[in-house]
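Worked example

This section walks through a single chain of length 182. The input is the sequence exactly as stored; nothing has been trimmed or padded.
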Amino acid sequence: MKKMFLAMAAMAALCLFSACGDETSSDPTRGELCQGGLSFDCLADGTWKLDGATEFTEIAPGDTFVTISKDHNFKATPATLHFEANGKFTFTYPPQSAMLATCYEAKTSGTWSVSGKILTLKTTVGNTCFYPKTWTKEVLVTKNGGNIELDLKGIFFLNSEMENATDTEKATTTEVFYISAQ
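Given that input, the structure is written out below as C-alpha cells.
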C-alpha cells in the first residue's frame, strides 16, 4: 500500500512538473498586435517614445529627406507617450526640452480612443499650450526594422514648440513615436 501511494505521488508530481514545463507565453508581441495597423490593442498598455519633431524636406519630386529637428532633438532622452488600457494617456517631455518649449509642461495627460484609422486625443491635464486640445486625425502605424512606428501625420504634443514655425515648417513636420515590435 505504501509503495502504491508513493508511486501515485510520484506520478502526480511528474504530471505537475511536466505541465509547468509545457507552458509557453501566448501573449502576442507588439508587432503582432499592430500587424493590422492602428487598433486599440496596438496602442493599449504601451509606452511609445518620441525622439523629437520629424521634418520632411522634399529635395526633388519623389525624393524626400527626413530628419529630426535640430532644435527639438530628444534622441538622448526621448519623450514618452503611455497609452493605458482604460483609455487614458500620459505624455512626458524629456527634461532638456524645458529650455526649448515656449510653454513647458513636463506632463500632459488625457483620454484617447481609436475608430478605424482615426486616433482621438483629448488633453485634460497640462493642456494650457496644446492647440487643439481635442485632436482627431488619421494616423499611420507601420513596422520599421525592430520597431513599430506611430506617425501622427502632424504636430500635437510638440505644438507649443512649433509655435513660431512657418506654415511650411508646420505642414512638413510630424511626430513619429516608436515602440519595440517585441
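What to look for: The mean pLDDT is 79.
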